[in-house]
């Protein structure tokens, strides 16, 4: 026990000594820009992470997702050591996709500050996981097994990897998300639910001047559907809604036959999520002859505060105290 206490006491200094190498690793990852859907770039970064992880003692590698157009996920397992080698694994969750198009946010380093897509969210988290594994190895500390899962589609709601996440979590003792905290460093024990919803509208094309009465405008129907959704959502003030994408029609002299809109919805509670989705996923046409259909593109349920999260937070707080952190 005295040896373990001494090793724990030395972790902070050991982590500081390796900062230049970890910063260099982060910069290498960030310079490999990986917007969601850029399969070749995502898989290339995944290969680099796998190589670094294997050097740190992990086993595993890339695994296919439910949608090949998303790129591969990465599943890595670090065997346990000592008396806890047979315990249920800790699950560390991360993602390697980023938001911005390549070149939209230039990568640059100003002294000790690195700027670029994924620096904070969340290639930094991947570097932290690998650094932690290497620190455990070098200190020869006993620990439970660790599973590290990287997904390539988190920024769009994890539609292709939700099953992988559930499978990885099924036998885990607990899960920690490695996404960086807000400005004040707080750990998150709850999160809004997130749903991407697409409204499809089909009308009837016609010449807008010669025979407008023969047409049914999909674009006008879509506008009315969005106004109706706004009125309904006014009764759910905790729900965040954003109409992010609109498209429809072909020409100004043609009554539009097709239109669609993509909505982003975020929910504080499961109850509001269920009520809103029940309503918005069963739209009724406003005008005769129009057809309206809702498609759920991705959905992450609301994660509400609870005893399990509070208990895990207490355990993390205690663990942090053992290595001199708050």
Automatic annotation (TrEMBL):
- Please state every residue range assigned to the domain named Peptidase M20 dimerisation: 189-281
Task: Supply the SUPFAM superfamilies for this chain.
Answer: Zn-dependent exopeptidases
Could you tell me one molecular function GO term of this UniProt entry?
A: hydrolase activity
InterPro entries, sorted: Peptidase_M20, Peptidase_M20_dimer, Peptidase_M20A
**Which protein, by its recorded name, is this?**
M20 family metallopeptidase
Could you tell me which species this protein originates from?
Answer: Cellulomonas hominis
């Amino acid at each position: 026990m005295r040896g373990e206490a001494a090793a724990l006491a030395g972790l902070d200094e050991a982590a500081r000594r390796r900062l230049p190498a970890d910063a260099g690793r982060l910069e290498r990852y960030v310079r490999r820009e990986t917007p969601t859907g850029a399969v070749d770039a995502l898989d290339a970064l995944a290969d680099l992470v796998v190589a670094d992880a294997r050097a740190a003692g992990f086993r595993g590698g890339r695994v296919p997702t439910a949608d090949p157009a998303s790129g591969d996920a990465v599943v890595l397992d670090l065997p346990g050591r000592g008396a806890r080698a047979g315990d249920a694994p800790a699950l560390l969750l991360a993602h390697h996709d980023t938001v911005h198009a390549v070149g939209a946010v230039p990568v640059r380093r100003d002294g000790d500050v690195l700027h670029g897509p994924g620096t904070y969210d969340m290639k930094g988290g991947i570097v932290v996981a690998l650094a932690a594994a290497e620190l455990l190895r070098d200190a020869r500390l006993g620990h439970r097994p660790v599973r590290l899962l990287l997904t390539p589609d988190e920024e769009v709601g994890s539609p292709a990897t939700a099953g992988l996440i559930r499978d990885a979590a099924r036998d885990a003792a607990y899960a920690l998300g490695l996404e960086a905290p807000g400005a004040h460093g707080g750990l998150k024990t709850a999160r809004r639910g997130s749903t991407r919803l697409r409204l499809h509208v089909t009308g009837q094309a016609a010449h807008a001047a010669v025979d407008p009465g023969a047409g049914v405008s999909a674009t006008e129907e879509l506008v009315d559907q969005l106004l109706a959704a706004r009125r309904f959502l006014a009764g759910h003030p905790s729900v965040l809604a954003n109409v992010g994408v609109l498209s429809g029609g072909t020409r100004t002299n043609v009554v539009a036959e097709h239109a669609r809109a993509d909505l982003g919805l975020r929910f504080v509670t499961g109850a509001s999520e269920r009520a809103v989705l029940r309503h918005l996923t069963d739209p009724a046409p406003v005008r005769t002859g129009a057809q309206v259909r809702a498609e759920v593109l991705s959905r992450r349920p609301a994660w509400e505060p609870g005893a399990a999260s509070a208990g895990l937070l207490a355990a993390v707080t205690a663990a942090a105290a053992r290595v001199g952190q708050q």
